[in-house]
Amino acid sequence: MDLISAGIDIGTTTTRVAISRLSIRDTANGFRLPDMRIAEKTLLYRGKAQFTPRIGDEVDGAALSEMIAQEYLRAGIRTEEINTGAVIFTGEAARCRNAPGVAEALARLAGGFLVACAGADMEGVLAAKGSGAAALSRGGCVLHTDIGGGTSNLCLLIDGEPVDTGCLDIGGRLIRYQPGTRVVASVSPPLKRLGLDVCVGDTLSLAREAEIASLLADILAQALYKKPQTAYFRALLADHGISRPPEGCKLSFSGGVGELMASPDDRWFDDIGPALARAIVAHPLIAPIERLEHAGAATVMGAADFSTALSGGTIHAGHRSFPLKGLQAVSIKLTDKSDIEALPEALTRAQKRGNVNTALVMRGIPNAGFTDVEAIAEALTQHTSGDLIVILQEDMAKALGQALERRTRRMVLCLDGLSAHDGDYIDIARPVGGVFPVIVHTLLFGR
User: Fold this and answer.
1) 38-59, pLDDT tens digit by residue?
2) Most buried residue among 270, 286, 332, 388 by CB atoms closer than 10 A?
3) Is 264 found in the same domain as 173?
4) CA distance 165 to 122
5) 3-state secondary structure of 178
6) For 320, what's the count of Cα atoms within 13 Å in the CB-facing half-sphere?
7) pLDDT digits (tens, 9 = 90+) for 406-426
8) What is the mean pLDDT of residues 146-165?
């Protein structure tokens, strides 16, 4: 069976759309429970980068909706054909005041199970996967940087898996020029934190632009642990830095600036993106740089291909309509039998942290026995209210769901084979072939 997945990356400078086919297969043998996995990913359409429409400091929602509708027409895909995917606001676009409202409208336009999400951690992971850096790190280590118009998202990958992320306010649109001139049209607030004497209306020489770009490249080298970190680095730290990578870690880049690093372009860009790309390539400490397959469309490829996970085959689902969107993940400690006794107190605390749309996230107990499942179900029934939506890593959702159904008339949904963390948000699609497509994401507009 196949799913159609759409990715929409709304960035500081440009917006892209990508559409993929995800082929779902049962990887279990005939003597085991079904184990549905995404076996193959096929790119159906990758749109060209188009400037993100703006009205002043805000995203133009109407123009953006029309742009995406036109992309669907070019791809030959109808909205109702899309099963999963993600709408990602990245960089400074995520900080626009109207970003949440625009994202909500786009989620309705873009398909029955597209979610609106943003946040440096997720951006970094999706870019690393979509660019090919994750695959490159198998058997080793890659420190990947996705540089867009407003931010640089870092992701440390070891043996194909992301282990840490970070973000800096470094991008190609920190200084913009009036069209066709070198007269400064805008200076992004992060650049002002460096104390540089650059103001709107100034005429910036090529030499001065190169000097600023070299400083930004040097700060990036500090973020990559190529030299000691200074006050300049701390001034441009957005969310948090990344942990020190192992020795011998490869470096790779993607995003608009990353694409210019791999394929220099002589066109006039009305910003310092090309100068920043040249400065990073020329920096003596940032070398060698690995070449990637999808440097210029990394985040949108990651959103279309890598944002979806599948539940396990042993699920329990009560009667209700899908998709479920915006479930707040509340983590409960349950990793072995000793945690069961403390469940009532943990659930009481969790109820205070959650909202009306809450999913309880637990690792679960390996090889849980009948009495264990019954005790967990009793605690969940007695110490929670509202719908019971439980996300587990361990294979116990069916048994737990049945135990809950015997105790309550509330709606019960138990899924296993999934991992989420406290503070994440979860979207659950309509079931396909006995499993549920799920997206776990961080909803963070503005940092």
Assistant:
1) 667 788 888 888 888 888 778 8
2) 388
3) yes
4) 9
5) coil
6) 17
7) 999 888 999 888 877 776 778
8) 87
